[in-house]
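re: ur question from earlier - yeah i can do the single chain one, its not a big deal. heres the input i used so u can compare w yours
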Amino acid sequence: MSQQPAHSVLFDQQGFYQYGDANTGNDNAEFYQSTYADPSAYPATGSSYYPSEPASYNTHHIPTGSFWSAFGTGGLPDEPPLLEELGFNFTQIKDKTVIALNPFKSVNRDIMADPDLAGPLLFCFAFGIFLLLSGKAQFGYVYGVAVLGCIGIYMILNLMSESGIDGYRTASVLGYCLLPMVLLSSLSLMLKLSGTLGLILSVISVCWCTFSSSLMFVTVLSMNQQRWLIAYPVGLLYTAFALMTVFS
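and the output i got, formated as tokens:
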């Protein structure tokens, strides 16, 4: 590549500058010589810095973040089901229901390691619905007795045991063991429970609920020697539900 004549920027006394050849004579000017070649000598390339036509961009692109995934059907990878996030774990509900219905089955001590109230609330609601269908609108009494009973049993268990138990686990055990009483209330749709048959079924249901719940409590709290002391107040609570089913 041939060396082109150098160009310079000339500064005069007034601060103005001129652009020209370095060989041009000018006594009143100072100049800075540059050894860079003329840019016009470089070969022109086919591409330009600024494109002649603007590139086309996809303006309808939808982000794939968590916000937009909430409005779609795909969801996020490894995302748990919605019912499980809301506390409805049907596997645990089934396992605890089987234990409540089969009190003679051995109970694992970690059965209440992950307590939930989804099953107990469902059973209380079903109990009230069966009473309503049999002509007994007792939703207020059902939830009132349930809340007061859970508070009372919670206080008694914490006074008797050294490790103690929280109210969440207490309500979970009492709610799951209410299932035999729910079955009794469903029989009230077909049978008249105010007679001898109803009395016998009520006693069986109370004993069933008491046996299951006391077994869970003594297993969780390691209080096998105090099982009868726990069964007494628990039996009184389930007797109140039986009275609502038979006589209310």
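The two ends are 110 Å apart (CA to CA). not sure if urs matches, ping me
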